[in-house]
Specification:
By secondary structure, this protein is mainly alpha-helical. Helices cover about 65% and strands about 5% of the residues. The protein has 28 helices and 8 strands. The strands form 2 sheets. The chain has a 6-stranded mixed beta sheet with strand order 5-4-3-6-8-7. Helix 8 runs parallel beside helix 10 (about 200-215), helix 18 runs parallel beside helix 21 (about 435-450) and helix 20 (about 405-435) runs antiparallel to helix 22 (about 455-465). About 45% of the residues are buried.
C-alpha cells in the first residue's frame, strides 16, 4: 500500500457507507476527549500576563460600557485589534459572569467548533475514520490546546480562516448554486476573520487558496472566488465596522493599515523578530509528540506525491504556505501558524488511517520507526525528572532562578516523571506488538497526562505569570475612594481582578502593552486621563484629594520609599515582585 492512496472526494459516496458500530463508539470517545482537552478545568489557571489579563479586562470594560465599536483597556482607547473577539468574551461575561473560565470560554468554543469543521470536512473528502483521527490529533496538539484555553484572538481567527479555505475548496467540488453558496460562505468567513484580527484574516486564506489552485493548474477559478457578489458579502461585513470606527477615531485608518499591518510584517518595530527558521523548532515543540512522525512522513509522502488526492494537496500547500508566509514576516509568534498545525494534524491522521487499513504497509512502518524516538525521549525525561524529584539539589544548584521559585515546582517533578514513564511504557508495548492502535495510544498519552495528572504544573506556571496573587495581597480594607496607581509598571490583569481602573505613572506608556496607546501618546496631543507623564508625577501626587495606593517594582522601589518617607507612611512588600504604599489624602494634598 502506498503512503497516500486515492480517496473518495464526494460526500454522497462516503455518506452512503454506514459506519461500523466500533467506529461510532470511537467517534463518541474522540468528541469526549476533545471536549475535555478544551474545556476541562478551564478556570483552573490564573490569567497569564500580559495577553490574558489585558484581553479579559478589555472585554470586561466592553461589557460594562456597552461600547461595542471602540474597545478600551484600563479606560484608554485600545485599537490594537478589532472589537469582534472582545465582543464574544464580553457577551460571555454578560451571560455567565466575570471569571477566568468565562474569559476563556470564547476561545474554547471556537476551538471545539473548528474541530467539528475539521471532522465534517475530512469525513466528506476522506472517510469517518480519518476524520475522527484528525479531530483527535488536532485536539491533542499542544499549540491547539493552549490557544483553545487562552484569552486571545488566535483560535477565533483560526476558525474563520480555516472555514474560508474549506469553503473555497468545496465550492470547486460542486456545481452552480452549490458553488455559489460555498463561495458566499467563504466571503462571509473571510470578512469575520478580518473583524477578528485585521487584514491577515483575508490575506492568509487568499494566499492558500490561490497557491493551491495554481498547483492544481486552475488559477482561472479564482475569478469565481472574486466574483462581485462575494466582494459584496465581504464588504458588507467589514465596511460598517471600518467606516464607523474611522469616523469615531480618525487616526485609526493610518494606524490599523500602516502601523498594525504593514509595519508589523515588514519591520522589526514590534520587537518580534526571529530567524527565518524560527518555526521549525516551534513546530517540533508545539506539535509534540506527533512531530516525531513528521520527518519520515514528509519524505515518504513526497516520493508518493503523484498519488495524493486533491484534499491531500490542499493541506500540504496550506501548511507550507502559512509557515513560509510568516517566516518571511518580520513579526513572528507561535500562534501565527496555528492553522498550519491544523493542516499538519490532518495529514498525520492520514498516516494513521493508512496504517490502520494496512498494518504491514509503509505507513505502519513509518509509525513504528517514529515511535522509537518517542520511547527514547520519554525514557530519558522520565529518568532525569525522577532523579530531580528524589534529589532536587541536582538541578537547583545549576539554575539561576530564585530558590523560592524553584521550590514551588518541586512537587510537580514526580508526576511528570511518572507521566513520561507511562509514555515510555506504552511506546515499548507498541513497538513490541507493532500495534498501530497502541502506537496511537502512546502518542496521545502525553497531552492527556499533561491535562490531567500534570495540570498542577500548568497551574503553578500560570501563578508565576499572573496578577491574581498580587490582587489578593492588596488589602480589601482600603478606603473606597482610594485611587490605585502604578509607578512605571502595570500588572496587566490587575484591573480585571480588582474590577477597577488603575492610573499609570509612565515615561512612554509601554507598561500598558498597547501599541495603539503608545502611538496616541506620541501623537503630540495631551495625554488622556489615566496615564501621567513623567514630568507631571510630582504635580499629580501633590493634587490628589483622596488616598493613593501606589505600587512599584524593584527598579522603582527606592523612589517609592522616598515618596512614602516624605508622607510619613511605610512601604509594604506585596510579594509577586511588587511593593506598595498607601499615601493618605491629607498628606498627598500637602
Amino acid at each position: 500500500m502506498t503512503f497516500f492512496s486515492p480517496q473518495i472526494d464526494h460526500a454522497a459516496d462516503v455518506g452512503a457507507m454506514p459506519a461500523p458500530r466500533h467506529h461510532r463508539w470511537f467517534l463518541v470517545l474522540a468528541f469526549l476527549i476533545s471536549a475535555y482537552m478544551l474545556f476541562g478545568r478551564l478556570g483552573g489557571l490564573a490569567l497569564i500576563s500580559p495577553d490574558e489579563g489585558r484581553n479579559a479586562e478589555v472585554a470586561r470594560e466592553m461589557s460594562q460600557s456597552h461600547s461595542w465599536l471602540v474597545p478600551t483597556y484600563d479606560g484608554l482607547v485600545y485599537l490594537d485589534k478589532p472589537a469582534f473577539y472582545f465582543k464574544t468574551v464580553a457577551l460571555s461575561f454578560s451571560l455567565f459572569g466575570e471569571s477566568e473560565a468565562v474569559a476563556r470560554l470564547s476561545s474554547a468554543v471556537f476551538g471545539l467548533a473548528l474541530l467539528v469543521v475539521v471532522f465534517l470536512f475530512c469525513r466528506r473528502v476522506y472517510d469517518q475514520r480519518t476524520a475522527t483521527l484528525a479531530m483527535l490529533i488536532v485536539a491533542t496538539t499542544p499549540l491547539y490546546i493552549v490557544f483553545s484555553r487562552y484569552v486571545i484572538f488566535d483560535m477565533t481567527l483560526a476558525f474563520f480562516v480555516s472555514s474560508t479555505i474549506f469553503a473555497c475548496f468545496l465550492a470547486e467540488e460542486g456545481e452552480d448554486r452549490q458553488r455559489t453558496r460555498w463561495y458566499l460562505i467563504a466571503a462571509l468567513s473571510a470578512g469575520i476573520a478580518t473583524l477578528v484580527k485585521g487584514p491577515v484574516g483575508f490575506i492568509v486564506p487568499t494566499l492558500v487558496v490561490t497557491i493551491f489552485n495554481g498547483v492544481e493548474g486552475r488559477l482561472g477559478v479564482m475569478k469565481r472566488a472574486f466574483a462581485l457578489c462575494n466582494w459584496g458579502v465581504f464588504f458588507a461585513v467589514v465596511l460598517p465596522w471600518f467606516v464607523g470606527l474611522s469616523l469615531l477615531r480618525p487616526d485609526f485608518p493610518y494606524y490599523g493599515i500602516m502601523r498594525e499591518s504593514v509595519a508589523r510584517f515588514t519591520t522589526n518595530e514590534f520587537h518580534r523578530t526571529a530567524p527565518f527558521y524560527f518555526y521549525a523548532p516551534i513546530i517540533a515543540g508545539t506539535f509534540f509528540a506527533w512531530s516525531f512522525l513528521l520527518p519520515e512522513s514528509i519524505a515518504a509522502a513526497w516520493r508518493e506525491r503523484k498519488r495524493w488526492s486533491r484534499a491531500d494537496r490542499l493541506f500540504v500547500v496550506w501548511a507550507i504556505a502559512v509557515v513560509l508566509f510568516f517566516s518571511v514576516s518580520q513579526s513572528k509568534l507561535p500562534g501565527y501558524i496555528l492553522t498550519a498545525v491544523v493542516a499538519l494534524g490532518i495529514l498525520t491522521a492520514r498516516v494513521f488511517a493508512a496504517a490502520l487499513n494496512n498494518g504491514t504497509g509503509r505507513a505502519a512502518r513509518i509509525l513504528w520507526r517514529g515511535t522509537l524516538p518517542l520511547l527514547l525521549f520519554s525514557t530519558l525525561l522520565a529518568v532525569l525528572l525522577g532523579m530531580i524529584a528524589v534529589n532536587p539539589e541536582l538541578l537547583k544548584s545549576r539554575l539561576t532562578v530564585k530558590a523560592g521559585l524553584f521550590d514551588l515546582f518541586i512537587p510537580a517533578f514526580l508526576p511528570m516523571a511518572l507521566s513520561f514513564g507511562m509514555v515510555a511504557l506504552l511506546s515499548a508495548l507498541a513497538l513490541w506488538t507493532r500495534s498501530t492502535r497502541l502506537i496511537f495510544a502512546a502518542f496521545i498519552s502525553f497531552p492527556l497526562l499533561l491535562m490531567t495528572v500534570n495540570f498542577d504544573l500548568l497551574a503553578l506556571y500560570a501563578q508565576t505569570r499572573s496578577s491574581r496573587a498580587l490582587a489578593e495581597h492588596i488589602p480589601a480594607t482600603l478606603p473606597p475612594e482610594t485611587e490605585l496607581a502604578c509607578l512605571e509598571c502595570m500588572p496587566n490583569g490587575l484591573p480585571f481582578y480588582l474590577k477597577r481602573l488603575v492610573t499609570v505613572l509612565s515615561r512612554e506608556g509601554k507598561e500598558l502593552t498597547s501599541n495603539y496607546v503608545v502611538f496616541t501618546l506620541n501623537s503630540g496631543n495631551p495625554w488622556p486621563e489615566g496615564v501621567v507623564p513623567e514630568a507631571q508625577w510630582q504635580q499629580w501626587l501633590a493634587t490628589r484629594t483622596h488616598p493613593v495606593y501606589l505600587l512599584a517594582q524593584q527598579g522603582n522601589l527606592a523612589r517609592l520609599q522616598e515618596i512614602a518617607r516624605a508622607r510619613g507612611v511605610e512601604v509594604v512588600d506585596l510579594g509577586s515582585k511588587y511593593w506598595a504604599a498607601l499615601l493618605p489624602a491629607s498628606s498627598v494634598g500637602n
